[in-house]
Fold this sequence. Notes:
Order of helices and strands: HHHHHHEHEEEEEEEEEEEEE
Strand order of the largest sheet: 2-4-3
Oligomer: single chain
Shape: flat
Strand content: 5-15%
Number of strands: 14
Largest sheet: 3 strands, antiparallel
Radius of gyration: 20 Å
Distance between the termini: 21 Å
Amino acid sequence: MRRPLLALVTLSISLACSQTPDEIDSQRGALQDAGSFCAEWADAACNSQVVDRCAAESTDHCVGQQERSCKKLINADEYSNRTAFQCLGAVARAYADAELTASELKTVLGAQNECDSVVAGPGAADGACLRTSDCNTDRELECLFRPGNAVGSCQLPEGIEAGHDCSALSSVCGGEYYCDGSHCLSKKAAEEPCSNTEPCGADLHCPAGDDSHCQPTLDTGGECELDEQCASGLCALRTTESVGVCADSVVLNPLSPLCEQLR
């Protein structure tokens, strides 16, 4: 039975501060390979609400589908159990109410957020990357991008304050600031010109186009084409349409594309 291990996930996270290194290592040992991790991922996802909402034939069918999906997402040769318990806790929380926010979708579909370190890629410091999982996350490297660059580099992030030099590849400007290649500057305000190298501030987005100006993000129900146009970060699109509406979350139902991985 795998349930006892899953039940310990939340408890282990809450007690982590009081645990000894040996106790933490013992728990990680139970998730020593990608196969055991994906088995627990599947159990975390396939609660009774998810099974009902997706009209799965059975919990076992849901578990089998999720296990296969997880194995496609997590490269067995690059799996790292360093943050496995945190990731499983995030997966369980994401599926708990059978409704997923934009952030939760990134967790379960892209192994981002709390799950971005369960793959420790081959990328060493200064190595090229497209995502953090391309980097050796066991060494706490992250994929950082320079303004306008589509390819990043694996770096140990260094926080930089407003107005200070951010020319180093490891530099990360905090809060409402961005790096222009040399210094941390304030992100653009409403109606100011913007681009992929000059981002907008909070609650604003930069429309596509050559002469773009920062515009307010859209509330729930607003017509959208891209996630970044929505305050929630989620533009709900029908499969055959290019225009959708901003939504707070995706509610699982038998017609949801996500349910194809859950039944």
